[in-house]
Design goal:
single chain; 384 residues; alpha/beta; Rossmann fold; six-stranded mixed sheet; 29% strand
Length: 384
Amino acid sequence: MNDAPPKDDKFAIHVDAGPSPFGEAGTQLVRIGIKGKEIESEERKRANLTFVIDVSGSMDQDNRIGLVKRSLALLVNQLKPNDKIGIVVYGSTARTVLEPTSVEEADTILSAIDNIQIEGSTNAEAGLLLGYKMASKLNDDEDAINRVILCSDGVANIGETGPEGILLTIEDYAGRNVYLSTFGFGMDNYNDVLMEQLADKGNGAYAYIGDIDEAKKVFQEQLTGTLQTIAKDAKIQVDFDPAQVKGYRLLGYENRAVADEDFRNNKVDGGEVGAGHSVTALYELQLKDGASKSWGKVTIRYKDVDNNNRSRESSATIGPSGELSDATLFIAAVAEFAKIMKDSEGVGESRLQQVLAMAEKHAASERQEEFGDLVKAFMEVRGK
C-alpha cells in the first residue's frame, strides 16, 4: 500500500469503507491503513546487523542460499559506512564466518558472503544462540540499532524442531533492545508459521523472499529505512459502535489479537514499529437499519521513543468514504483469493474469475499484476 506518511505525528491513520465486492448483499468492506513516520537515510542511527544464515542441505538451491547471498550484497550497498555487519551460519552446528565489520570494509563483507557454503543438517537454535552472543557484544552502543536477522527456509530437523526452545531467549533479548527479524527463502518447504512466530517474539518483522525482484524491494528499498524503531508497544484497537454495526469479521491477523481490556494495559506487550512501516487490516461488517455515517473508531496506542517512552494515542473515525479505492479493491481480491486457498472445496470457477477480473482491473504496479498470473496458475492446476 502507498498510504501517505504522517506530516507531524508518528502515525497516519487511513480509512476506506464501502460496499464489499465479495460479501453478501449489504456487507460493507473497511480497510484500515496505519503508516509510520519515515526517516531519511542520513538521519538514521547507525546499525549493527548480525545475520544468522541457514546453510543446511535444504538451502542448497539458487532461490535459497543463492538468493540469500544476492540479497545481502544488495543490502551492503545500501548501508552507511559506520554501519556494521556480522555473519553466523548454521548447519549441523553453528559458527562465525564474519565478526562485526564496518561497511567501510565492504570488500571484506562481500567476500565473506560469497564464500558461504552449504554444510550439514539444520540446527536453527544453535545458530540463533551464536547470533545473539555476537549481537550482545555490540549492545553497549546505546546510540545504535542492534538487530539479529535470520535467513532460512524455516526447516529445522535437529534440536528444537519448533520455536518453543528458543522463544524465551528471543523474548529476553528483545527486552534488551536486540530485535529479531526473519526472512524466508525458497518455495517448497518454507515454514511461514515458524518464521512469523520467531519474529513476533523478537519484536521484528518477517517477509518472504521468492525472487531477486522481491529481494530488491526488501533489502534495497525497505529494510534500511525501517530499521530504526519509532514506537514501542504499539497496539491498534478497532471499536465498532453496536448501535450502528450488527456484526463484523476481521480478515486475517488472528494471531496478533489483543484483548480489549489489555489495550491500555502497559504491562501487556505490543509491537515495535520501524520507521515507514505500514499495516493494513480488512473488516467485513453488517450495518443495522438506519445506521449513521459514523460506524466506529480506530485508535493506535504506543510508547513514543522520542519522548521518554510516554504513552500516546491517535484515532480516526470509521465511516463510508464513497467508492472504494483501487488499492482497497485490489487488496480485497487478494484477501478473497486467500480465503479460497484456505478452503477451496466447493468454490466455483465463477468466484475465481471474479477475483481475477478485480485484481487485473485494479492492479497499480507490475508486481501487483503478477498476482493475476498467480490466480491463473492456480486455476490451471485446479482444473487438471
